[in-house]
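Review box. Two proteins, two foldings.
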Amino acid sequence: MDEERRAFLGKLLGIPSPSGFEAEAAACWRSEAERFADRTWWDIHGNSYASVNEQGGPVIMLAAHIDEIGMVITNIDDRGFLRFEQNGYDLQGLPGQRVRISGTDGPILGVIGRKTVQWQTNAEKRKAVAVEDLWIDIGARSRGGAAKHLEIGAPAVIDASFSLLGDGAAVARGFDDRVGAFVVVESLRLAAMREPKARIVGVATVQEEVGTRGAQTSAYKLNPDVCIVVDVGNINDMPGMESFRQQQGDRCLGAGPLITRGPNTNPELFDLLCSTADSHEIPYQVRASSRLTGTDANPIQVTRGGVATALVSIPTRYMHSPSEVIHLDDIEYAAQLIAHVAAAIEAESSRFVPD
């Protein structure tokens, strides 16, 4: 990945984007797409769109959610400590984490506190952490002092930045799923260079983490014939995962995107992705799924009269933690594969109806 693309990825990851508060990250995504797209726009729900070959057909939707897991402030106590609800984080890893809150005058830094270990009873030390055991400390000394800088309902995320690790890996908060949003805009850019016959529309959906809501509204509005959803996918190449490898097969970082096969995906589109990857020597991994995938692919597949849908996932370690790990090669492999497939589709969507 060249420096320009990596800089945009880092910029996108640096913008807090918890569910329901995606506007700034979405604007960043559209700004990047405006460099090459025929048109960009957004809808009342907050979904962002960018299209190439506006008069072409059929309509291909490339979708990834731009929201991340996060927190919302629910109360301020008399001493200025903040209580919160969270969506998606592993509570066991939250104590001691720094957080960034969207305050009335800009970002506010805080720390997630818990009764220190020296004050805990033996029973408390053995107990799993609950959200009721935690608070956010912003250094305020009273309710009034804290309320000067933030409002009830303010969103917050873990304060963790994008950084490179060794051997092409990278770590960040919120790769789930702004890395997918990055792949969508990159796939769209690469497909536009291949003079596609189809109209290809990239969509950065909102509120996936609270019920795949943006996927429902954007797919209904766009009414695509074909959709490729990009999300992150759990892998099992870490210590202690032997039983999962035996059951699922190896799923590894840096070995190419995961292509899902199962009832939530179109078999003809799955075959096209795999055959295209083979013909262009793009590494990939097949992931079997016997049920709904828990991604935007779920509602898009059954929108209106049905959409031929596929799911391409970026291999990810430590999903829904403050330090998700991906490999930059997998991002490029995914973007190249999706661009090739989107540019190659010329026939009407009937080709994706199983025999």
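Next protein.
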Amino acid sequence: MYKLIINHLTREKRFALLDGNAPIKLFIDQPKHHSSVGDIYLGRVEKVLPGMNAAFVDIGEGKNGYLHRDKLVAFVQRKEENLSQQITSFVHQGEKLLVQVEKDAAGTKGPRLTNIIELTGDHLIYMPEGKYIAISKKIADSRIRKKIRLFGLQLKEEQEGLIFRTSSEAESDSVIADELSNLRAEYEKILQKARSMKKPGKVLEQNAFLDELLREIKKLDSGEILTDDLSLKNLLQKHTEIPIKLYTGKENIFSAYKLDYEIEKALKRVVWLNNGAYLIFDEAEALTIIDVNTGKFSGKNDLQETVVKTNEWAAAEAARQIRLRDIAGMILIDFIDMKDDQDRKHIMDIIEAELKKDDRRTNVIGFTPLGILQLTRKKTKQAMSEALTVKCPSCDGTGRILSPETLVFRLERELWEHRGGDAEAVLIEASEDVERIFSGADKVHKKRIEEMLQLEVIFHVEKSALPYYEIRRFGNAADLMIGAKINF
């Protein structure tokens, strides 16, 4: 049974979808990392780059957005005759455009934009200038698809575009026609607001959290929905026949259902499986690598059984973690090597079946000659690790820091630069491990360096989880000893 847990009382909004007791989706919305995907702006073209067939557009948010030629209405409306023409034929510097965010800004890159506006309804996605009809791939029956396409051609104007969502299959023509009429009216309001604006800025802001939450609720035929916010409960109840329960416990609703633990788990590099095997997640900017290890699992019969069984469990858990962590872009899964092509196909089938539950578009490409499974997942917003964490100031996000030995050798080199100076001593603040390694057994290394440099080395040792040192000052040994006692 599905269970939807919604934490809405505080500034950070969260919901989790559980299948039984296992979370299969986590959605977290922080004010700082609020997604702009779907937001509509009045933009002004700042620069047109023919070499990239793209333009950079000022939307009033600091970073200019990236707009490709193929995402321009002018190109789409005359696509048949203009495939070879560059972007300069369709847009010019200083031109004002209505644009929508397709992908959030990330790092130094601004948001990715489209000039082909999409307005989402319950059964339709309406594109005022889309000029094509598409039907959800989940509607498999060719006769039904043909019927829907013919109905769409009757509904839409020539320049308009329609995408029929999966739910449209079970809905009446009149309901869909009414929804299209409402979406057209909504677009007219957007145009009116844009016409009244004198400079680039936001025309329509989507409530990403509420939109995503409503999408999940509308997909539920049965199950349990709980929220800690009475006003949200009343709002959501209008969209579902499933009774929504109000949680009134003192403990945070996520803590009560052990979901805070699941978030912590989804941020860890290592994920253990129930059989003793484990996965290692390494997320880089360009791709994510998932490494599968047998760990403590040894199987009951032969090695091949151990390998295949571990890979089966790993495939299911990797797919679940990809959804939970909201990992996107290129993903490589390094399964334990399988010699038999049938075994590889079996593991691919498991991954594909699990990813069919995912709303985000995924593409399982296949195994490389080295036995690494390649797949891609559409990226629209930050992964959970990007949204909830920052780079470690010590390791700068690498996950590794300099060893105490390396720092000791660096300190030695730095002190050598002061040989032959006028100072009698040097005061160094350092962690315990740096002082111990620098000094050596019975202080033999420290004495040798002092003799060679003709410089007394005075340490003030501080407890620290990280190895470090800092040369505080040079001077008279007695003064430095007194100063060390006063200042530390």
